[in-house]
Amino acid sequence: MSSPSLSDPEFSRLCRLINDSLHPFTESENISLSKEEEKNLLLILSQVSNEIHRLIHTTNTASPLNPYLENHQFLSKAISHLITILTLESRFIQHLAGNVLVTLSEFIALSGKSWDFLIRSLCICFEFSISNISSCSFEPSIGGVEGSDSDLLCLVGLLKPKLKNASLFTVAGIIRILRNILKILKEECDDELVQVFLNLIRFGILNVPWDSMDEIFGGNGGEEDELRIVFLGNFIQFLCSLVEQFSFVEGLDDSLDKHVILLKIINLMPKLLYWCLGKKGECVNTCISRYFRHKLLVLMIRLSFQIPLDCMVLVSWFQLLHEYFQELLCQPLTEVEYQYDCLEDSPFMLSITDGEVHSMHSCHLQRQAIFLFLRCCFSLINPRKDTGMHCPSAILKSGLSFDRIPDMSCYGRKKGLLELYTWLSEHLPVDMLVDRETYMEKCISFSFSFLKLYMHEDDVLFKLLLQLLSVQACEEQQFPEERWESQDMREDLHYDHQVLLDYLISKDTGISCAEYLLRCLRMVCDSWQIFTKFSVYGEVKNQSYCKRRKVSSESSKSQIEPSSGPAKFVPLYLEKKFKSDLEYRTGEQAYQQAKDCLLSLKNSMENLHLKNLFPYNPEVLLKRLTRFQELCFKQ
Fold it and tell me: In terms of DSSP bridges, do strands 569-571 and 484-486 run parallel, antiparallel, or are they unpaired?
């Protein structure tokens, strides 16, 4: 039996429930509630939320669209009452009022009407609240909703006197509502609703005079500091979700120019870093500083994947990285010993001290900072054709001047190489007159320590590997005859197709791993003779690996423990010195093991795909593996 369709009286009753229930609490401009009145308001908000949930679960979404929802008058009043509640100081009341608005948005999204009006209304509320707490007053932009200008003006008339008491707490509440609505849209996978949301949210972000907000957000300490932190935390979270959402929307409408809002956020980065971390990253609260650093690095990394960054932006980001994250870039690439039998921050991590927990967070931030730094370096060294190196697509506020640079591409490559060389010099000896074998060992040890740094975050690891693949190879390596292999690698993991399969079907690493494997297979197939003759030297006495393999139904029950210490490499020219500890593995043996691993992976993927158990369409990767198989048969 199908659910009953939404009728006009039902929606009318819902509007009356919101308006009649909340009107006694919002009729005056200066709201002051007693403890008893606060309890009653919390109870009423809970009842309203429950009623909306009931309608959501009993409404037949396949029924004809309800014309009653076209009447924005009822919705305007409901929004004005709920937004007014957000100006109260009680966090419990604000939280519940925000949840009612989020639930109401879910109800409206299912009904199919007034979605654009609701989102535009929330943006106007955001602009009004910012304007009322800022010395730089501005009027919210009216528009973006076809045929609804008069209704929006009516809403502005309702909201203007109510939001005179708005605070940063109110603005943070509105931002949290918008972010939670965006999370619901991501779960629903409705591209049409998402596009409307993204198209309308830009009005609010673009209209706010952010350059005049230092007096509000640039403080550090004082009575307003807590409210400032709450707002900035919500705002950075929202921007991270907003930028990420562009990845999930397919076939963006021509009316939605994502570059406009993304470039605005890029131009905001210097401000955001200053507001969150203070001058030179000197934030008073250490825990808050770590959180802000994490979210800001996430935001910058996501922006770098969403839009090609031109030379000016990349160079300005180097300046920001050095100002706010320099100690992370220079920090030695040491590894924290992890406990694998309990979650991070779990009370069962009894053997880990506070200092070691801090080191864990530091390693996470170090991974993010180095990844972003290298991404900026490689983007300048090997720019994409669509980066617009000569086109100043972003208006930078960093104080850098590029007017007198004749060849921006050449300048960018030199800058990228210089930054990379300087960073490597911090971690590697620059004195080439030292013992050659010692120098080479240090270089190899750094390379392996660098990769091990990312082993505990697989998603970042594959993004890093893809970034390294994007760099143009040098015409000739300095020591082409020298090959090395880790003493600390476990041989079975080198050629275990189950490890690759686990990565491919993982929600976090699947897409990045598939892309990385595709590019590696293309290199293998294009350089087939080199691949078949590849040989390695490795020690077999101390076999351990720092990555624990997930156990699948088809794999053995054994687990692979973390390595007990840093890896040591043996170059080819040291073979005689360590001859008794080495086992030579011929090119034929290495080729055979790699072939068996990849062909087993192909079979497993085909079996899962035939049963519709693969989480995404793997046909492109299977096609590349089929080409590999054909070359194997010819071999």
Answer: antiparallel
Sign for the CA dihedral angle at 372, 377, 378, 382 comes to positive
List helix spans (H) across 167-209. 168-188, 191-207
Yes or no: say if 30 and 166 are a contact pair by the CB < 8 Å rule: no
Burial (0-12, 13-18, 19+ Cβ within 10 Å), 135: exposed
Q: Please state the φ and ψ torsions of residue 538, each to the nearest 5 degrees.
A: -150, 150
CA 208, 212, 215, 219 torsion-angle sign: positive
| DSSP code at position 136 | S
Asked whether the beta carbons of 398 and 270 are under 8 A apart, the reply is yes
The per-residue pLDDT for 267 is: 94
Amino acid at 497: H
State the DSSP code for 575: T
For residues 564 and 401, give the distance between their C-alpha atoms in angstroms, rounded to a whole number. 50
The chain-wide mean pLDDT, for the chain, equals 76
Closest listed residue to residue 245, CA positions, set 204, 155, 306, 316:
306
- Among residues 129, 132, 122, 5, which one has the least CA distance to residue 69? 5
Q: Nearest Cα to 83, choosing from 69, 103, 100?
A: 100
**CA–centroid distance for 475 within its chain:** 35
Indicate whether this model's pTM tops 0.90: no
Hey, where are the domains in the chain?
7-61+70-189, 209-307, 308-339+362-383+407-474, 496-536+584-634
pLDDT over threshold 90, residue 598? yes
CB-side exposure of 518: number of CA atoms within 13 Å? 15
Cβ-Cβ contacts under 8 Å for 476 (sequence gap 6 or more)? none
Say how many Å lie between the first and final Cα of the chain, rounded.
62
Element of type H or E holding 537: strand 536-539
pLDDT band per the 50, 70, 90 thresholds, residue 352: very low
Q: Phi-psi region for residue 222, left (φ > 0), alpha (ψ -120 to 50) or beta?
A: left
Spatial contact of 18 and 81, defined as CB atoms under 8 Å apart: yes
Q: Give the type of residue at 106.
A: E
